[in-house]
């Protein structure tokens, strides 16, 4: 970014050392086919550079930053059929070479854990053996994205998957592989798995499951399994009679969000994918919140 700015300043024939308002305002102009987020990134970089110059005693103009643009990104929500196809594809993958650093060994258990609990991929790979309590069916997540530890209970089905994984993992000739402080998910050589390698295998799973990969940061991604878990949870709770708005705080706590607003996007996504859920809620509160059109008709 600074390299691009340096070339831009040379083109402007600026003679003064500090940044002038004229040059800064021209740099801040929105370019063709540029998103507001990219423009904001350009401006904040130059703003920080100008602040650095002023701290060094050089007179320089600090441009005023616009409001941080709201994200318009829409995550990919896997359908139930797609998740089933991904599980089958994951179980059918085989190594074509003797790569001891491959994480393929963990993929069946890892994918099911991500979908069953909605935890982030980084949280899953950071798990230690002591953090996975199969008897009490609970995960202990530490140093999470929001800086808070939390407990994540899980179902008997995931407990059975974890037992099966551990049964085979502990047969690996790795000293201390079952120690409490050792990582839960490991490659065949006992090393920790990393997100980039997991993503590469996830791409292969998508391909075998027949799910198109669009790329260009639109996925589908591993993290979209977490989004799918949230939406599917709303649907499951609605099926057993829990209103979508009543389940909102519970799911927010379970996902480790700091506020209800962070979970709001899942409510909107679920409403778009399953509009009948909101229709059920409207009928439930019809007597409490009458239709405004009916009220207006009564007044008229």
CATH superfamily of the largest domain: Intergrase catalytic core
Q: Tally the helices: what do you get?
A: 13
Q: Strand order, biggest sheet?
A: 1-2-3
State the secondary-structure class: mainly alpha
Task: Please summarize what this structure is.
This protein is mainly alpha-helical. The protein contains 13 helices and three strands.
Tell me about this structure.
The protein has 300 residues and is mainly alpha-helical. The chain is built from 13 helices and 3 strands, in the order ααααααβββααααααα. α4 (80-92) packs across α8. The model is unreliable at 281-300 (pLDDT under 50). Strands 1-2-3 form a 3-stranded antiparallel beta sheet, with no helix packed on it. The protein folds into 3 domains: 2-55, no CATH class; 80-209, hpI Integrase, Chain A (Orthogonal Bundle), CATH 1.10.443; 244-284, no CATH class. It is globular and about 70 Å long. 21% of the residues are buried. The termini are far apart. The longest helix has 20 residues, at 36-55. β2 (138-141) and β3 form a beta hairpin.
State the main characteristics.
3% strand; globular; hpI Integrase, Chain A; mainly alpha; 3 domains; 300 residues; three-stranded antiparallel β-sheet; 3 strands; disordered C terminus; single chain
């Amino acid at each position: 970014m600074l390299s691009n700015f340096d070339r831009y300043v040379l083109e402007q024939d600026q003679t003064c050392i500090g940044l002038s308002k004229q040059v800064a305002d021209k740099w801040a102009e929105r370019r063709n086919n540029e998103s507001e987020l990219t423009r904001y990134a350009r401006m904040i970089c130059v703003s920080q550079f100008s602040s650095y110059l002023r701290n060094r005693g050089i007179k320089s103009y600090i441009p005023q930053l616009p409001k941080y643009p709201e994200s318009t990104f829409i995550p990919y929500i896997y359908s139930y059929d797609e998740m089933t196809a991904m599980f089958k594809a994951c179980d059918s993958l085989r190594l074509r070479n003797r790569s001891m650093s491959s994480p393929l060994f963990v993929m069946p258990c890892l994918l099911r854990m991500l979908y069953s609990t909605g935890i982030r991929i980084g949280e899953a790979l950071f798990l230690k053996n002591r953090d996975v309590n199969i008897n009490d069916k609970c995960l202990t997540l530490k140093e999470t994205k929001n800086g808070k530890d939390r407990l994540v209970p899980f179902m008997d089905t995931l407990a059975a998957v974890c037992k099966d994984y551990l049964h085979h993992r502990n047969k690996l000739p790795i000293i201390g592989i079952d120690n409490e402080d050792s990582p839960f998910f490991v490659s065949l050589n006992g090393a920790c798995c990393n997100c980039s390698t997991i993503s590469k295998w996830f791409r292969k799973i998508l391909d075998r499951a027949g799910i198109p990969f669009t790329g260009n940061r639109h996925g589908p991604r591993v993290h979209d399994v977490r989004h799918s878990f949230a939406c599917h949870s709303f649907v499951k709770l609605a099926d057993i009679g829990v209103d979508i708005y009543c389940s909102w705080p519970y799911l927010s706590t379970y996902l480790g969000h700091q506020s209800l607003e962070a979970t709001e996007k899942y409510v909107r996504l679920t409403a778009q994918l399953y509009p009948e859920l909101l229709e059920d809620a409207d009928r439930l509160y019809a007597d409490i919140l009458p239709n405004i059109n009916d009220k207006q008709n009564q007044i008229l």
